Amino acid sequence: MDMRAGTETLLDRVIAAPPGDITAVIRASRSMLVLPVRSVLEHRIAHRAENVKHWTLAAALLCALLGPPAKAEQYQVVTEEWAPYNYEENNQLTGMTTEIVRAIMALTGDNFEVVLLPSMRATRVLKTRPRTIMYSMFRTPEREPLYKWVGPIVEESIHPYQLSNAPPVNSLEQLLRAPQITTRHAGLVPDMLRSLGFNNLDRSATENLQLYRMLLAGRTSIIIGDTDAGVVFYSRQLNIAPGTLRQIPIELYRSSLYIAFSLDCDDQLVAAWANALEQLRHSGELERIQRQYQQLVGQ
For 44, 103, 204, 285, which has the most beta carbons within 10 A of its beta carbon? Predict the structure, then answer.
């Protein structure tokens, strides 16, 4: 029944009723108003319940399609095998920069996972994975805009090496005319050599130790790949007698090692690591760690 029609009918009955019957008419007709109101309320409640059910189902379907909410990537530290800065010994990650990074995290309160990866993979992870930190890296003009930087940690240089009983090479011109120079298959060093005009590169070595084994076996005459500290370290590891290798007196590269952060890393985190490194520098702890590994390689 229409509510307005019900109201008009009630008025008509009240007007037409004798004075003594007005109260009875009103009581008898009360349901004419109550029932329509109840019907309207029940209809609206049912309609809203149906809408809620519809939107709840739609939201559930949307969540199922989108999957669970994405979690922010946790910070991860990656490094490569490059002694004496970062390397594995007795199944433990160690090295000069490894110890410095751990000292930094002790000061900042960070407890990030540190993962040792093959060289090219470590660099790729730094480029592609959010919230990634990598050490040890030379800070070159090409790399400068790609990352955020903390350092310097230590300055190092790279020289060519040959066997001491081979005809000595003493100039860049001789190096450029050498029959073959063996270096790593990828990375900063081969890229640098190529930019200097070296067209005699053998880039077959996939790891540092392979360079020395090839040189000792006579499969190459000159190797370029490690810093001077690295050459001493690997010579000891392979039990190469002192005086077997000769440093060619041509410094091909000199720079400082840094810690690199992917660009999405929080600026506050980068600043905290930089401040922690300065604390290590001022307290003398940085020099102590450096001296420990310099003694290890006999520098």
Answer: 103
Domain containing 28: what range? 3-66
Contact between 84 and 230 under an 8 Å Cβ cutoff? The reply is yes
Number of domains in the chain: 3
In a domain? residue 201: yes
Distances (CA, A) of 201 to 39, 82, 198: 91, 21, 7
Q: Do residue 113 and residue 151 come from a single domain?
A: yes
Range list of β-strands (E), the chain = 76-79, 87-89, 92-94, 113-116, 132-138, 147-158, 161-163, 181-184, 201-205, 245-247, 253-262
The percent of the chain in helix, strand and coil, each rounded to the nearest 5, is: 50, 20, 30
The answer to whether position 17 is within a domain reads: yes
Write the pLDDT tens digit of every residue in 65-110. Answer: 555 544 567 999 999 999 999 999 999 999 999 999 999 999 999 9
CA distances (Å), origin 138, targets 37, 123, 161, 203: 81, 12, 21, 20
In a domain, 71, yes or no: no
Calculate the alpha carbon distances from 68 to 62, 131, 223, 299 in Å.
11, 21, 52, 55
Within this chain, do residues 219 and 288 fall inside the same structural domain, yes or no? no
CA 116 to chain centre: 13
CA distances from 297 to 65, 202, 290 (A): 57, 27, 11
Q: What phi-psi label fits residue 36: left (phi over 0), alpha (psi between -120 and 50 degrees) or beta? A: alpha
Provide φ and ψ at 233, rounded to 5°. Answer: -60, -50
Question: What does the alpha-carbon distance between residue 195 and residue 234 come to, in Å, rounded to a whole number?
Answer: 27
Classify 125 as helix, strand or coil.
Answer: helix
The 10s digit of each residue's pLDDT in 192-221 is 999 999 999 999 999 899 999 999 999 999
